[in-house]
Amino acid sequence: MVAPSELSQWFEMVIDCYVEDDSGKPLVNWLKQDWRIFGHAKMDDAHAKELLADVLDDGEIVRRKFLPREQSSSESPQRWDDLRDEMMHRNRWFLDDPIDLDRLGELLDQLIVPTDELPAIWFRARLLSDDVAYSLDAMGAPPAHLAGHGRANPAGIRYLYLGSEPDTAVAEVRPHTGEMACIARFVIPDIRAVDLRDPRGRVSPFILEGAEQISRVRGGLPLLERLGEELTKPVQPRSAAFEYIPSQYLSEFIKKRGFQGVVYSSSVSNGINLALFEPELAVGGEVTLSHVDRVSVAISDCNGANASAGT
Q1: Residue 125 and residue 173 in contact, taking contact as beta carbons nearer than 8 Å
Q2: Exposure check for the chain: N or C terminus, fewer CB within 10 A?
Q3: Residues 298-310: pLDDT tens digits?
Q4: Positive or negative CA dihedral for 88, 94, 96, 100?
Q5: At a CB cut-off of 8 Å and minimum separation 6, what does 269 contact?
Q6: Does residue 68 carry a pLDDT above 50?
Q7: What is the pTM of this model?
């Protein structure tokens, strides 16, 4: 059992990233929003304030309001939106105002996913074009001359896209009800991968080196969230050639930093995806044939109401 007061030195370092300001909000709210601290479902604001007061041995600080210390706008989500628009519609290779890649690299280094958190088995699916099932050799990454634009790879560069579950892999190839799909199992060795599913939940301020680094990482978290969204969001095939450019740019940089893949959420299932930059690392196994029994569709109208249907 650890007494709350024994945690004070770590919490004080995090709290140094905020300054008192009557226009702000309580520290507990910032810690929940920025770092997922006190995020347990049973930890309401009242209990969180009581616990933080015990940690800091200060019952008054939890009642005061704070704002984050000023951060550079170069890491803001708007900065990424501007860069994304430039890459897609104005300049591709020589950007007018490139993103700070050194800072981005520092942020990505906080998101290395532990190998034991990755699935032992991954899956890739291909829809059948006729009644003949694909061999294992045909279930890996396509040859370079057939590699089209993907979320992570530019055309002509081979990456292997894998899903954590068979239904995730099938959902990612956008099947119709009644189609047949081949699903191959793959095993990959220990790899160094970036996890962009939930940057705020992944990064712990308590392992960072002082308030200055904590403040820098905190300022970059919204950007990391946007980068994860780039890999996850659905894209229409007709616009993929330019819509995928921002996520391809990100993935190329991640690879250049020495990572072998990037993990991201699936927009069409509850599973996760892996873009493996070195397809030869994956060892293929059993190939099975599956029938697509049902495809679920979710829609939203102009007023924000949601509906779903099965096909």
Answers
A1: yes
A2: N
A3: 777 766 555 555 5
A4: positive
A5: 163, 165, 167, 168, 171, 172
A6: yes
A7: 0.85
